[in-house]
Amino acid sequence: MKFVCSQSDFSNNLSLVSRAVPTRPTHPILANVLMIADATKQKISLMAFDLSLGIETSFDANISEEGQTTLPAKLLNDIVSRLPEGEISLTSEKIKDDQTGLLYLKSASGKFQIKTISADEFPPLPTIENDEFIELPILTITEGLRGVLFASSSDELKQVLTGVHLKGTADNLEFAATDGHRLSVVEAIISSKTSRHEEDRIVKVKNLDEFSVTIPARALRELERIIHNNSDSKVVQLQIDDVQVIFYLGKQKLTIRKLDGDYPKYHMLIPQQFEHIISLDRKTFLNSLERVAVLTSQKNNLVKCIFNHKKQMILLSVETQDLGSAEESIEAKITGKSGDIAFNIKYLIDGLKALSTKEIKMQLNEGNKPVIFNPLGGLKMTYLVMPVQIVK
Amino acid sequence: MKFVCSQSDFSNNLSLVSRAVPTRPTHPILANVLMIADATKQKISLMAFDLSLGIETSFDANISEEGQTTLPAKLLNDIVSRLPEGEISLTSEKIKDDQTGLLYLKSASGKFQIKTISADEFPPLPTIENDEFIELPILTITEGLRGVLFASSSDELKQVLTGVHLKGTADNLEFAATDGHRLSVVEAIISSKTSRHEEDRIVKVKNLDEFSVTIPARALRELERIIHNNSDSKVVQLQIDDVQVIFYLGKQKLTIRKLDGDYPKYHMLIPQQFEHIISLDRKTFLNSLERVAVLTSQKNNLVKCIFNHKKQMILLSVETQDLGSAEESIEAKITGKSGDIAFNIKYLIDGLKALSTKEIKMQLNEGNKPVIFNPLGGLKMTYLVMPVQIVK
Question: Which CDD domains does UniProt cross-reference here (chains A, B) (predicted)?
Fold first, then answer.
């Protein structure tokens, strides 16, 4: 393999795929990035894969000799990102009949020799046989992820709950995530459905009706990041089979292993009728919660909300034996009787950050029934939190 | 105690003294900040002390009842920094005859109750009996610290080496720090020596000739930070006795316990004659070192420098068995024969970052004699590094 490319192209694409390199690889080869030089297309492909998430990207290069090899991702990234801008030339060679070899990297300022491992050792990225694609507007994906990702569980033992559930209806795509204590659901409207040629694949738009998949939150955070750094693309294409889902975004491709198992029937959890409806300013509520949260401890992170119909106020109060106590009052439009309810303050803060409108609506019933929060206007989002019983 | 003050005054001063609060306090009271309300001066003083470093500051407030108490620094800081701008009112009261009490903090948005511990429990900050002050220009201090602080040892067992040594001569103040492997010395010129009234103390300028003290690097980093955030003051005043040194900077006061023990006679280490003199561009050298450093490992952080008199070039090379190797060439003006030398690359990088001029001079002798680096022009600074023997 022998090619010349620009330092910035190499560095940007390398740092992009490096996100799929595991920090503690179970096998040495997984710490490496696969590099393929295609002389016909005059393109370099880079690929990293942690057996659950694979990221692929490609960029133009001047290739005089094709080939493929794998290189330690972190080391290569550390070198290439520090090189001065300009052309760099790379040559790889095998040592004897060994599975290892050497990469020679030359820039204006110096030269580097890096140990390589044969591309044969690199686990093949799963492919999807069918040629049906779903095309989604970037905005649909970003709004959906922004509204639900935070609510997924970070506990690996909770399996499907570590993912985000996507479900299609006639012209909606519903995103949902829950960790068992709170649930966030976003209904994203899909405005445009067109089939188009992109790169060298024909996009056949599949009916969203049949679409239902649970995708690991970690992989979706990488998708979110790639979308964020990729402002040209307006659409994402998806390909799906029983095991994998593949996202195509311009020159980047994310191959993600789906999460097995049935996703909870979360719609059943959302109450349809409420005794109390409260609307209030989201930012004011959030700031007050963040201040009183200072007085909560790891053992006791309870905030009590007393809503006073007569005064049209909510009183937030927090008390921790060893530290002290805090109270804040905020104005609210309250219909229904006065009452009180308590929450894990972290769940409230997380949800209020994800709800993006100025005003929000909070709906609840007596007793320890689920409480729901919705934005007033804008996105169709429902955030459900289980209250905590107040010991009286 | 009862007073009203501005949120921003309280928050800024609190975060300033909080730097002296230990992260793992040996006694609960050390996690607290001492607050004194002086009705006569209409000033609030805040103080934190970890038994080695004490930081004191004061600000104006509307005091209706004087008194003193101590409060958990982190908790108070977390609350006050989150409060909206505007006036806050504070009232403290004792609970029974107990050593604990409560502070009531009220802002526009809410109220907080925080547990206090009696001010009697707070260890008194050491004072200095003599009334002799040394006045130093801020620039002298900042240049000196910037040039040497990085070279002090972070190993608490190395005692005096964890500090910076300050030594006065007729019109110089010399800063020195060493960790046993490298040494940095800055001779800061003191241009102005004037005696003046400041606040309520008379500044008698003491002769710098007798001045010699070793001060913990950690405390000096706080001094550096306070100077940086305090752009009004042009001078720092110093008071010193056998045990303590006190820095006065506007409304702030740093009380620091000196490091005991004789500081090494470092001047003896600096060679006066050299066989090789090399001058080169600092930034180019630094960038090259940072790139080849990627190929060093924790076990082997050696960089070999081959200086070629004929080509007027330095070749840097690094090799680590498992990773690979790197080479960079840089132009240099070399007098004396060609040769080679090896260093711990971290020591070179640290020193080159602290030397602030565009061009630098590197002087060395055959064998494993100390190598020194000086800026060309600007500050009078000497950075000495012990080379590492090359196994041939």
Answer: beta_clamp
